[in-house]
Amino acid sequence: QVQLVESGGGLVQSGGSLRLSCVASGSIFFFTTMGWYRQAPGKQRELVATITNGGTTNYADSVKGRFTISRDNAKDTVYLQMNNLKPEDTAVYYCWASLSGSWGQGTQVTVSS
After folding, report:
1. Which of 15, 59, 97, 100 is least enclosed, having the fewest CB within 10 Å?
2. pLDDT tens per residue across span 41-63
């Protein structure tokens, strides 16, 4: 079982930046695609970005050009750099590991206008 722990959320003004981190326990990190999802109040959870173990990335159209996903396999950590944040980015952000289907507990991101 893989455990995922997110950090880095918070309150930021529109146009600001945040960097989320997700540390994975267990031995599968090197082999698994990792991703970030988000869920706003009253909405379904949606994909934000994914990164394969080889470094191939994929982004939701709404965050392309503003968010960057990356990973450090030596640290079993995946990151989400979020720039030019908008109020519509407000949500709980969840880390996900594809191989185990594991989810983190989520970290709140709030963007004020």
Report:
1. 15
2. 999 999 999 999 999 999 999 99
